[in-house]
Amino acid sequence: MKVIKEHIKLGSYKPFYLLYGTEGYLKKLYRDKLKDAILGNNDEMNYSYFEGKDINIKNVAEVVQTLPFFSDKRLVIIENSGLFKSQSELSTMLSGMPESTIVIFVETEIDKRNKLYKFVKDRGTVSEMNGLDERNLKLFAASLLEQAGKKITISNVAYLLDKTGPDMENIQNEVEKIIGYTMDRTIVTTEDIDTVVTTQITGKIFQMIDAIGSKQQKKALSLYYDLLSVREKPMSILFLITRHFNILLQIKDLTAKGQASAEIAKKVGVPPFAVGKYKVQERNFTTARLKQALEFATDIEEQVKSGRMIDQIGVELLLITFSKKE
Questions:
Q1: Rounded distance, CA 102 to CA 117, Å?
Q2: Distance between CA atoms of residues 78 and 266, nearest Å
Q3: CA-based angle 284:286:292, to the nearest 5?
Q4: Beta sheet of 125-128, edge-to-edge order
Q5: How far apart are CA 35 and CA 257, in angstroms?
Q6: Residue 112: its pLDDT value, please?
Q7: Would strands 47-51 and 16-20 be described as parallel, antiparallel, or unpaired?
């Protein structure tokens, strides 16, 4: 990202950019920064956009070969194409592209063995954009509020992130709701956050597992009924609970092996922001207990699918069994 900022500052660009990773907010932000810097806000004549896995690469090849009209640059943006996970002849088609054309690829997943990836990396700039760590997410949320003349304490910004989760676009949307709700008031309170911020289902699941680990049975069931009240399906909730227990088991194992948090985040597939919270939570469970919970959840799923148990009761049974005091 620093390299892209430098290119924009100098007004000197590479012919290819690949923005990839899990954080949609950052990819969109830098895509748009590059677009505005290269073409300005109103030059649609020299701008082409392709999206999806059914892109006709011959059409792309034709567009990138076209010289710009009344401008120094032509910009082509290609999003979510899957071209970095499959084989194609696009790299060959792009090899003779005029210097006036710049191509920006925006993808979620890539294969570094892919021919197109190697071509773009060799001739352009590749930037991986995944979730921020907890410290930078707090700074991000606080800065959005500060731009609107709002102040928030460290504890309250942490409380806000517990509700929103680590997705930056969701954080931005929820912060905008807070700004609108607080109007002329400067200080953002926990009451403001509780009133307008929507708690993500993953946040509810996290709270539910916390309640199970601390043997707060009533709280675990209350959170479950809250999810049912907003029409979340019991089997979807069971899937998320199972996934969460599986993450805790993996993190417990990797932590015992001395793996660093950044490496754990990559191996387990969770945001760097969340690893610390998972580490705290897994201490409430033994390895044996986590394995028991996973086996229990699998058994409930099988019984529900075979018609031997009602789905809502099955999840209740899981919560009651593992949150009861021994």
A1: 16
A2: 26
A3: 110
A4: 47-51, 74-79, 101-107, 16-20, 125-128
A5: 45
A6: 94
A7: unpaired
Between β-strands 125-128 and 101-107, what pairing exists: parallel, antiparallel or unpaired? unpaired
What secondary structure letter does DSSP report for 133? Answer: P
The stretches of the chain forming alpha helices (DSSP H) are 2-10, 24-39, 57-64, 90-94, 115-123, 134-147, 154-164, 168-182, 190-196, 201-213, 217-229, 234-256, 261-268, 272-282, 287-305, 311-323
Backbone angles phi, psi at 107, to 5 degrees: -135, 160
pLDDT number for residue 326: 67
CB count within 10 Å of CB 23 equals 20
Residue 319 to residue 313: CA distance in whole angstroms: 10
Q: Which residues contact 223 (CB under 8 A, 6 or more apart)?
A: 204, 207, 208, 211
Measured in degrees and rounded to the nearest 5, phi and psi for residue 167 equal: -70, 120
| DSSP label at residue 50 | E
* 250 contacts 215 by C-beta, under 8 angstroms: no
CB of 78 closer than 8 Å to CB of 17: no
pLDDT along the chain (326 residues), means of 10: 93 96 93 93 86 93 93 95 92 93 96 95 95 88 96 94 89 96 95 91 89 94 91 93 95 94 88 86 94 96 95 96 86
What DSSP line would sit under 80-125, residue for residue? S--TTSS--SHHHHHTT--TTEEEEEEES---TTSHHHHHHHHHSE
Structure tokens, 38: 């290269």
The answer for residues whose C-beta is within 8 angstroms of residue 184's C-beta and 6 or more apart is: none
Give yes or no for a contact between 199 and 174, defined as CB atoms under 8 angstroms apart: no
Q: 261 by DSSP, 3-state: which? A: helix
CB 131 within 8 A of CB 166: yes
